[in-house]
Amino acid sequence: MEWFDAEGYTVARAAVQRGVAAVYVVAFVAVLRQFRPLLGEHGLLPVPSFVARVPWRSSPSLLRRYSDRRLVVLGWVGLAVAVSLVVGLPQRGSWWVPTVAFLVLWVLYLSVVNVGQVFYGFGWESLLLEAGFLVAFLGSDDVAPPITVLVLLWWLVFRLELGAGLIKWRGDPAWRDLTALSYHHETQPMPGPLSRLFHLLPRPLHRVEVAANHVAQLVVPWFLLVPGRVAAIAAAVVVVTQLWLVLSGNFAWLNWLTIVLALSAIDDASWAAVLRPFGVDLPSTPPARDEPVAYVVVALAVSALCVVLSWWPLRNLVSKHQRMNASFNVWHLINAYGAFGTITRQRTEVAVEGTRDADPGPGARWEEYGFHGKPGDVRRLPRQFAPYHLRLDWGMWFLALGSSAQLRWFVPFLVKLLEADRATLRLLRHDPFDGEPPRWVRARTYRYRFARPDEHRATGERWVREDTGVMIDALDLATLARRR
């Protein structure tokens, strides 16, 4: 079945399999470090309470009979399988060995996402699940990758990029008048160490950035569907634009996973042309033996299923009411993607403070808790955390936007601070009370903007912030008990 073989994409297969597995490594590390304080038995949004009110058919998961111990086992199994795929062990076996390994990752992470509630309600969760499922059927080293699965990966990158471009063009007018990036570098959820420098670029360069983004997301994706050198060049453009986003912000593994998936469109001949001037020759690949009939049947059946499921995201792409980051089935397969259809013009941050004083009145001394990623200390340089995902910090950004869904966990978070819960405090960068409980806590809001060069030289501050009032006034455990 010569038409089934894509022998010229062996480098692409290896890069995508190992790259997707590497992202799963990051994802399961985050599960082991963050899931229990956020969603565990004593977490902010406990899974047992969630599964008690949501039926299995709406959120299938191995964690519906939840325990923290089961979560830890799941996390370590997922991590071990992902590491084995990164180093290429399952790929050395029969065609079905990497298939089983990736499907194990998909089932385990699906089990996490489907009970993760608001903390796992991000588009890149669905992207990782869809990518892991598709890559599962690329086969092992002793068979050629199937062309139908490669096409599905190109279709995934196409939807990812074009969906993001269309949601911008149809959404905020700042994308159409080319002013969006005059705000975005400053107001994005989690700025990185270079975000301030990007924000301070001259406004004409911001317009060039936006125009280039439109070309990269609205025009380039179409060329991914033209196999060979054309698709390879389009993939290179995607990689370059995603690296630009990596430098300018922190978007968990969204950009890195997009880069990995784009590599699926680069054929071996293109890799050879790029590497040959550097004296690097690709190893010759022996002709693949005939594929087992079972492998062909499985790959074609999965491809047919994905073609059927593609109807809903395709309809979404052409809809005037395009949905952003939507899953059309509980398995998170063949999803709709998009990002930042609306741009915020000003940055609001919620600062969480505590005091040990008996009276929380005007004379009280309030101390601020420090978060790893979200802005707080105006002198602190933002850090680079991506591809790692700081879920609490992202939740704080949505909270500052006025999201009522975030209040469901934020009040329990304040309770945990009043109790000096050690698991919760480990999610923070700085506890001003060194593990001791405060008497009172409160939440205030501030308007943040990047300091201008002259302001930074004068004060050493990277941010300028303005107090905009109280979000939640002083609370103690007794007050919260009465409110319950």
Strand order in the largest sheet? 2-1-3-4
| Structural class designation | alpha+beta
Percent helix, as a range, is: 40-55%
Low-confidence stretches: none
Gap between N and C termini, in Å? 66 Å
Give the DSSP E fraction (strand runs of 2 or more residues). 5-15%
Q: Which radius of gyration do the C-alpha atoms yield?
A: 24 Å
- Please trace the helix and strand order, writing H or E for each element: HHHHHHHHHHHHHHHEEHHHEHEH
Averaged pLDDT, please? 95
- The total count of helices amounts to 20
Instruction: List how many beta strands DSSP finds.
Output: 4
Overall geometry comes to globular
* Largest β-sheet summary: 4 strands, antiparallel
Give the helix/strand layout.
Elements lengths: L9 H30 L7 H7 L14 H19 L9 H18 L9 H13 L11 H24 L2 H4 L4 H7 L7 H5 L3 H21 L5 H20 L5 H9 L5 H8 L17 H17 L1 H8 L28 E9 L11 E2 L22 H10 L3 H15 L3 H4 L14 E11 L2 H7 L3 E13 L1 H7 L1
Antiparallel strand pairs: 1-2, 1-3, 3-4
Helix pairs in contact: 1-3, 1-4, 1-5, 1-12, 3-4, 4-5, 5-6, 6-10, 10-11, 11-12, 16-17
Account of the 3D structure:
By secondary structure, the chain is α+β, with helices and mostly antiparallel strands. The protein contains 20 helices and four strands. The protein has a four-stranded antiparallel β-sheet. Helix 1 packs parallel to helix 4, helix 4 runs antiparallel to helix 5 and helix 11 packs antiparallel against helix 12. The chain is globular, with a radius of gyration of 24 Å. The N and C termini lie far apart (66 Å).
